[in-house]
Structures are given as structure tokens and as C-alpha cells.
Amino acid sequence: MTTVLETEEHKALRNAVAALGNRYGREYLTKVIAAGAHPDELWSEAAKLGYLGVNLPEEYGGGGGGIAELSIVLEELGAAGCPLLMMVVSPAICGTVIARFGTADQKQDWLPALADGTRTMAFGITEPDAGSNSHRITTTARRDGTDWILTGRKVFISGVDIADATLIVGRAEDARTGKLKPCLFIVPRDAPGFERRQIDMELHGAEKQFELTLDDVRLPAEALVGDEDAGLLQLFAGLNPERIMTAAFAIGMGRYALSRAITYARERTVWRDPIGAHQAIAHPLAQAHIELELARLMMQKAALLYDSGDDAGAGEAANMAKYAAGEACVKAVDQSVHTLGGNGLTGEFGLASLITASRVARIAPVSREMILNYVSHQTLGLPKSY
Q: For 218-235, what is each residue's pLDDT tens digit?
């Protein structure tokens, strides 16, 4: 049996999604952001074509694929200049967690709607005082009869204004040990005590960022996702796809920026030849392309490991993929803007806004420094510094 990086089905998916993305493009997304709106038309069409739920089980209306397929969708939309950031959250994190660990009722209630795009779910883990340390999460869940009561705060939570619910990471007391353990809860957007405040961001995107307050939010027992004793396993079942999809987001953005720079370098003539004929222009663009391709290889490895059920191997590869893609994206965007010179800062070419956007892949959902901590400790076996 010959091993291939991508099947013919994957290649066909890439081509089909690229065609969809190119019909919308960067201009569409720029107009949506300027209007303070959401890319509803693109989201709906991608859903109708089966792209949003390509990773979800077929019996619930999904495509029966995995994160490998979903990452292709996000990468190609990004390469066309119109990535859908909520894909990272709704089908990749929340859809995956519910598909793997949800009850029969939770699967029936949420997966078909997540797959066809009619409902979305946000994901709430980050807290003001916890940062990248999920063990310091202070949002607590306590029992009150058969109900759960959630109290705490979350910050930098994407898309809460459009999400029908938020998958909240809290901590509950273990009855046997008395220690707090992570648990996941589906919190409806209109739950009493569940409040949101939009964060004023310099980064302009279609998906807004919010701070959440949970003030004694009462939830029924069925709001708990999965087994309350398997919290970490369930949590990382969502975090690994998040890292893989962030890599796809970054690679797509880098490819888009690079394509604009390549076109410009072929056409722009200052002296006798197009500027792309000069090695000072050509070589940095070639290096950026190589680094994006290398990052994609690690992303493909991470997706393959995750989809095959190797959670431990996927954790290492997903972190490496996210790191590599973030670095490659920032360098590709920077070099692309520099290639265009002053034109790279104009609205006409649409690259300047990517300077800020590309930093997201270095910062979220986990900083590159924390990934280096993970690799040095987990992979290399070096002493832990924190």
C-alpha cells in the first residue's frame, strides 16, 4: 500500500473549497468587517456544501471525515483571503468534544445543527488570571441537587454574540480526593447570570472577542458533557484540534499574503526587469513558501495522528504544527508587505491588516513560549521550569 500525503478526495476538497473562497475573497471579508457584520453568506454556503461539518459523524449529518479534512477547508478559505475563524471553535473544538464524549441527547441536539451551520457554539477556557495555565482555572462548578451552579470569569472568547451556547471549562470538586478537576458544560446564551462584555480590540475581525461573567449560572445535569471524572482527556480532545486548526488558519493567511506578493513581484518593474527577478526579492519569498510548506507537513502529521486516535502523539505534533505555522505566517506576511513597499500598507492591496492578524497565530490559543516549554519538557525530557 502506497502512503500518500493527500488522497484524491483531499485534493478534490481543496479545489472545491478554493473555488468557493475565490468567489468571496478578501474584498468580501473586508466589507463584512467594516460593516461590523458577520460573514453569514459564506458561512451558510460552506455549510450547505458540507464543508463546515466535514469532520462530524455521518449519522448526525456530517461528512464522516476528521480534522484533516476540516483543516483543508479552513486553509483554503484562508488562502482565498476569507477564513472563517468560528470553524476553529464550533465544529473543530465543540463538535469534536460532543461527538467523542457527549450523551446521545447532546449529540442529537447539537451535531446536526453544527454540521449544517444553523447553530454555532463558542468555547470558553481562557481566564484573566490563568493565561495558558489551565490548572489555575477558577471558574467553579458545584452541585445543587441534580443541578450544577457555575461561577467565574472568562476572557478573549470568540463569537459569543452569535453563538447559541458556549462550551465552558470549569472545575468541580472530586468527591473522592477533594481536588478540583476540569469539567465541560454547555451554557445557553440566554442562561440567567451569563453575561458578556465586548473587548475593544485593535485587531479588527468579523469575530468579536468577549469577557464572560458567570454569576451562579444554574444548569441542569444534562449540561455536563461526558464523564465528570475524565475532564483532562475530554479537554485535550478539543485543544488538539484547536491547535491544528489554528495552524491551518495561519498557513492559509500566509499563502494569501505570499500570492499577492508574488503577483506584484512578477509585474512591478522599477528598472528594466520585474522586481521578482532580483534575488533580494525572490529569495525571501522562496524561503517564506518553503516554511509554509514545512508547517503544512507538520499540520498534516498532527491531523493524521489525531484522526487515527493517537491523542498523545497528536498533542506533540499539534503543538509543533501550531508553532511552525505561526512563525511561517508572520514571516510570510512581513515579507509580502515589504515586497510591496508603500503599496503594502494601502487598503487597495489589503495586506497591512494581516500584520496584526498574523500575530494571532503566535499568541493564541497558546503562546509559542508555552509550546517551547511543552516540547523541551515533554519531548526532550528537560527539567520543568514552571
A: 999 999 998 776 667 788
